[in-house]
# Entry
Amino acid sequence: MMSVLQGERGASQVQVVTAGPAVSLRGVTKRFGTAPNVLEDVSLEVAEGEFLCILGASGCGKSTLLGLVADLDQPTSGSVEVRGGKPSLMFQEPALFPWLTARENVELALRLTGAGKKERRARACDLLALVRLKDAGDKRVHELSGGMRQRVAMARSLAQDSHVLLMDEPFAALDAITRDVLHEELVRIRESQKLTVLFVTHNVREAVRLGDRVVLLSSRPGRVVQQYAVDIGQPRRIESPEVSHLSVAITEDLRTEIRRHGGHS
Amino acid sequence: MTVQATDDLAELEAGLDALETERTQKTSRVRVWWAATWPPLLFVGALIGFWQLVFNAHLQPSYRFPSPGQTLTSLRDEWDSGDLQKAVWNSVRRGGLGFLASLAIGTPLGLLVGRVKSVRRAVGPILSGLQSLPSVAWVPAAVLWFGTSDKTIYFVVLLGAVPSIANGMISGLDQVPPLFLRVGRVLGARGLASARHVLLPAALPGYVGGLRQGWAFSWRSLMAAELISRTPELGLGVGQLLDQSREASDIAGVIAGIFTILVIGIAIELCLFAPLERRVLRRRGLLAATV
# Structure
């Protein structure tokens, strides 16, 4: 039996700690109102600098889980700890503010962390250069392609100066070619910025392409079913035999999980 | 990652960005302006031509149906006597002041109703109901309360425009995508910072629409008030000028008055509100680059 740390219902907040894993969830259960549990007894640790992919079908509470880590919501019971401050969060939609230019979007994030005007400008330019959008700073959001928008969103997330980056299916709405390029970009930036990444997806290959470790969640309620270490060196390619091999095995487990919901058991 | 691989990725990305960004062609401003201007001018010209034709057919005696020329003469007479300039200035000033006052009241009211649930439940339906009540209905009450003073006019204008502006603000707030507020929270914007950097800019398009409608309502209400309450103390407005012509059974003067009201309304719409709205929408990519 696993021991569950009971938090006071509704009052447990994300705790900021200074030692240990970058993110740790202990016995986290979440339900909304009187509905059945969305997440049930989820315990996870993400090590400093680790790239962890959370994989699951619809209804596994992936987004709910990220919301808990980002402190947008509180767990019904259990505890969530994040090391070194508030994590940044990227969504499937870039959700850039259309009344600002690309650079102003990044600058706003800096401003909300309390940075001064000059510093904001310089840092925003650096961050845009990091995602290779140095010359697109003055463009408006609608003038950028989907991939460029998501890169601006990445720069905006990095502007929060958090070492933990949470990503909620950030590439799901992009075409395959752009997604492939952004995978490579994310791996590069994560290395250079020494980020800890918690990446949620329903795409098995994407999870294997990116993660150091893949965690499979069941659906309704979301529970940790299986974990896989990905021992393939970067740079990886999504179409490589090693990635495919592990993906096939994980897909098999995922399907078994999904079948349980068909009522044929 | 090796330097070579990084360079390759950079080039790949640059190529992809170039392919996926639309190339915008710049059309000259004069051309855009001309393309937007000649169709309505042509239409107005045709309308005046048609008017002249009907006049030439002598369907009605000219004291009931004036020609375009007679109307123009009447306008010129009013201009020469100085009445027209005085009336236009008075009305535009009243309309402008009334609009600014409505702005100052309608904006916070809209914010309050839009953001506070209990207030919304209580005040919301009445506010949208007020919008469908013609503000001219308030004129008799206003005359009894304030006599025939400027107060009467401003009272009627306020009751016309405040609900429009407040409702514009409310619908602007309602249209803010919840995701923007979530992103704001992730970025650390709470309370006032969230309102200033996320909520208000996101609500701007709806609000500007409300301003536009608010102006139309203030102008309409003002004309109604001026037409009904005509006394020497109030001074001359376009509405009063129009009513003077009616009393003198001067049909050309009446038509000239109607035109004056229409032209002022169109001019302010074209010079102030249309560009404002276009600018807000274009910045957000909600409007095609060319007209």
Q: What stands out?
A: Chain A has seven helices and ten strands. Residues 1-12 of chain A have pLDDT under 50 and may be disordered. Chain A has two domains: 15-87+162-260, 96-161.
